[in-house]
Amino acid sequence: MLNDYSVEDLDEVEAKKELIRLNEILDRANSDYYNNDAPNLSDSEYDILKKRNSDIELRFPNLKLQNSVSNKVGSKPSNSFKKIKHSVKMLSLANGFDEQDIIDFDHRIKKILGHEDTIITYVAEPKIDGLSLSLKYLDGKLSQATTRGDGEVGENVTENAKTIQNIPKNIHNAPSILEVRGEVYMSMDDFNKLNIKQEKNNAKVFANPRNAAAGSLRQLDRSVTASRPLKFYAYAWGEVSTPISDTQYNAINKLRDFGFSTNDLTKKCYGPKELIHHYDKISNKRADLGYDIDGVVYKVDNLLFQDRLGYRSTTPRWAIAHKFPAEIAKTWLQSIEIQVGRTGALSPVARLKPVNVGGVIVSNATLHNEDYIKGRDSKGNLIRGGNDIREGDWVHIYRAGDVIPKISDVDISKRNSTSKPYSFPTLCPECNSPSERIEGDSVARCIGGITCPAQAVQGLAHFVSRGAFDIEGLGNRQIEQFYELGWVKEPSDIFKLKLRYENGIQRLENRDGWGKKSANNLFNAIEAKRKIPLNKMLYALGIRHVGENSASLLSKHYKSFDNLRKSMDEAKNMEDKKWSELLSIDGVGEILAKTIVQVFCNPSQRKIIDNLVDELEIESELNVLVSDSAVDGKVVVFTGSLERMTRSEAKISAEKYGAKVSGSVSKKTDFVIAGPGAGSKERKAIELGVKVLSETEWLDLIDINKLADAK
Fold first, then answer.
1. Three state DSSP letters for 119-186
2. Is 311 strand, coil or helix?
3. Residues with a known catalytic role
4. 16-29, pLDDT tens digit by residue?
5. Are 166 and 230 in contact (CB under 8 A)?
6. Is 57 helix (H, G, I), strand (E, B) or coil?
7. Residue 320 forms beta bridges with which residues?
8. Do 259 and 137 contact (CB within 8 A), yes or no?
């Protein structure tokens, strides 16, 4: 089952299927939650699936669905109510599930603002589990109440909202336009009384206070809403004719002055440590609050900072919801094992004495990385009070936010006096190659590459992918089939398939999906790729940090494979002039340089490369064809769908005429070539005054006929 696989172990085909599956489940869940007020998933189950969807999109951005749930807020408003378009979008919040997520959030904020050495002030407040509502006041009078809907368009529930007693109908000394946002909820006592009443009347009994509040507010008969004990907490604002404050905290106090109920547990905090301390305080009070909360929301206090930080497509960058774990259980950690992912990442996994967590029997938990085991984050800050995790420990397990459960804490009082700190391996358990953790990376990785069984299939799939050898008829499924048969263990084996077939060593026809014609088509496609440009061959090797752009940089500098190979040999000690030469290449940093030298100087990996080179004719890098062309030295960006050439061909044509191809538009961009479907890049170019060309205009500019003749 795909949903049993960790995100790191999914290939592109599996990832695409999983994104489609998750999107269907989450879309249905959104409709059940927002429109029907009858969710079919618990909050924690929803969070788990949504995070999995987000993680897959992050790893495979090219597979993101056009209608992805990550681009949506809430659900489309019901046809039962009149629609109202929000003047300022009502967005959702990004989620954090542990201390590390909050520390990372703070790091991101400081990095974007350029305040990495200062403490950022935040406002922390309980995240009430209710229904979002926007109240619009014109000249102090409540004129409109709207649900969040899909974030852009909500439902008009004005008359129903007016029946909620603690929503002011008139406010004094307010801006002429003031949109107040908050949460409609029901207290636990009122919820229990309502359900008793409903049961006596043989009416619907609600599953929880959130459903009761949402169902009550969205009644077509306002008298039903009026009979329900609803309350409203204000925590934000939308459209205002004049600002009400310059900080989040003071703005909340201003809303209180206007007569709105605000949460007494709202607190100004300085840095992530105080945020987490306040989270713990609220968590301890949770059972006695009298209303449901599912976490604590953190917002940057300075409103100018909020403006600078801006928004993602569905969430503000300046806020995060620190969610409570769904349920915590305690059990023994029997052993720590290392799993090697398809990218070579060494992932520690806790093997547990089976325990029931939220209705699921759990026997494994992720331990993230070496730092997490030691009780520190990737920046060296303490987590879990600095307590490390050891085999034989009594640990606390929770299942919020990930398919694989996590360890939230360790009970040191039950630790055996003879236990020893866990020693993270320096060798890959799969292939015995050294593992390496590059500075700034949170995980250690096996440097064995394709020589490591755990990485072999993904490495081979990358080798034949678009942008690399791009062999028609040889995709992930075929690579897996040939690997399992033992026919293809390294890239050079691909070019020996035909010979082995002709010698009768292996028979391809009549196997699943293969006939004589399809086998011959594959062999012809492979033969056509024996001649390959140096940059594509380098990219195909799948060396970590060597992408298409860096492969082109290396190819242009060293010109030929023989020159590159010789230079890497001489740079082995990372001291002589060849090492300095490698670092001098614009766009090549120390991490990339170190990685490629290590690969070329690793005996097993070098053997794989040399075996491959023996099967190929590697084209040396061509010099710029026309040094004084119209695009020589220019920065160009391609966007949209190209109709007369592929994106790869377009990039090659630009570079061979001396242009530099970039992936983003900036003031330094000279031309944007926009095909059908061009979007944000074309708009940005127009805003910056960058010249936008059609594909035909671009081909005329570089004179593609000359390029064809030169080939």
1. CCEEEEEEEECCEEEEEEEECCEEEEEEECCCCCEEEECHHHHCCCCCCCCECCCCCCEEEEEEEEEC
2. strand
3. 127
4. 888 888 888 887 77
5. no
6. helix
7. 298
8. no
d(CA 151, CA 174): 25
Q: Roughly how many angstroms between the first and final C-alpha of the chain, as a whole number?
A: 48
Cα angle at 688 between 682 and 689, to 5 degrees? 85
Question: Where does the pLDDT of residue 505 fall: very low under 50, low under 70, confident under 90, or very high at 90 and above?
Answer: low
- Helix, strand or coil, per DSSP, at residue 445: strand
* 3-state helix vs strand vs coil in the chain, percent to 5: 40, 20, 40
Letter for the amino acid at 323?
K
**Other residues' Cβ atoms within 10 Å of the Cβ of residue 280:** 12
Element (H, E) at 346: strand 346-357
pLDDT in tens, 562-605: 999 999 999 988 878 889 899 888 778 888 888 899 889 888 88
**Angle formed at CA 688 by CA 683 and CA 690, multiple of 5 degrees:** 85
Tell how far CA 174 is from the center of its chain: 41
Running DSSP on this structure, what letter comes out for residue 288? G
Q: Determine the Cα–Cα distance for residues 223 and 246; give it in Å rounded to an integer.
A: 40
Token pair 């990485």 is found at: 455
Question: Domains in the chain, start-ordered, CATH in brackets?
Answer: 2-70 (1.10.287.610), 95-323 (3.30.470.30), 328-414 (2.40.50.140), 447-529 (1.10.150.20), 533-619 (1.10.150.20), 635-710 (3.40.50.10190)
Quote the CA–CA distance of 491 and 295 in Å, as a whole number: 50
Q: Kindly write down the DSSP assignment for every residue of 387-417, as one continuous string.
A: ----TT-EEEEE-TTSSS-EEEEE-GGG--T
pLDDT by residue (tens digit) across 440-492? 777 888 888 888 888 888 889 889 987 889 898 888 888 888 888 888 999 99
List all residues 6 or more positions away from 245 whose beta carbon is below 8 Å from its beta carbon.
Answer: 251, 253, 254, 303
What distance separates the 2 farthest-apart alpha carbons in the chain? 92
Please give the C-alpha separations between residue 626 and each of 134, 631, 671, 697, in angstroms, as whole numbers. 61, 9, 18, 18
Distance CA 506, CA 509 (A): 10
How many H-runs (helices) and E-runs (strands) does the chain carry? 26, 24
The 10s digit of each residue's pLDDT in 175-221 is: 999 999 999 999 989 988 998 988 888 888 887 788 889 889 988 88
Q: What is the DSSP string of 638-696?
A: EES--SSS-HHHHHHHHHHTT-EE-SS--TT--EEEE-TT--HHHHHHHHHT-EEE-HH
List CB contacts of 354: < 8 A, sequence separation 6 or more: 331, 361, 362, 363
Helical pair 561-570 and 548-558, crossing angle rounded to 10 deg: 90
Strand order in the sheet with 671-674: 660-661, 635-639, 671-674, 691-693
3-class SS of residue 509: coil
List 316's β-bridge partners, or say none.
Answer: 311
Query: Which has the minimum average pLDDT: 273-277, 457-461, 617-621, 624-628?
Result: 624-628
CA dihedral sign of residues 194, 195, 199, 204: positive
Taking the C-alpha atoms of residue 608 and residue 618, their distance in angstroms, rounded to an integer, is 16
Which residues 6+ apart lie within 8 Å of 649 measured at CB? none
Q: Are 493 and 487 in contact (CB under 8 A)?
A: yes
